């Protein structure tokens, strides 16, 4: 199991999660709004997919 370096309550659009990924940190994010969860998942996915293509 990997250590969590960031816990992100109310993660909104995922900006803090993307910053955690950029900093090579692990995170756990959650929100009370399904709309924000979906938005964050899409943004984080686009960012991490972009990283894979650049490698």
- Please list the strands of the largest sheet in the order they lie side by side: 1-2
The chain-level mean pLDDT equals: 86
Q: What is the string of helix and strand elements?
A: EHEH
The percent range for strand residues is 5-15%
DSSP helical segment count = 2
Low-confidence stretches: none
Percent helix range: 40-55%
Query: Which value, in Å, is the CA radius of gyration?
Result: 11 Å
Helix/strand-derived category reads alpha+beta
Number of strands: 2
Whole-number count of domains: 1
Distance between the termini: 25 Å
Q: Largest sheet, if any?
A: 2 strands, parallel
What does this entry look like structurally?
- This protein has 55 residues and is of the alpha+beta class.
- The chain has one domain (6-54).
- The protein has 2 helices and 2 strands, in the order βαβα.
- A two-stranded parallel sheet has the order 1-2.
- The longest helix has 21 residues, at 34-54.
- The radius of gyration is 11 Å and the shape is flat.
Mind sketching the topology for me?
Elements: E1 6-9, H1 15-22, E2 27-30, H2 34-54
Parallel strand pairs: 1-2
Helix pairs in contact: 1-2
Task: Give a short summary of the structure.
The protein has 55 residues and is of the alpha+beta class. The chain contains two helices and two strands.
Question: What features would you highlight for this structure?
Answer:
55 residues; alpha+beta; 2 helices
């Amino acid at each position: 199991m990997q250590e969590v370096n960031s816990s992100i309550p109310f993660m909104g659009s995922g900006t803090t999660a993307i910053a955690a990924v950029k900093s090579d940190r692990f995170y756990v994010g959650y929100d009370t709004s399904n709309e924000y969860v979906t938005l964050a998942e899409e943004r984080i996915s686009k960012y991490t997919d972009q990283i894979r293509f650049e490698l």
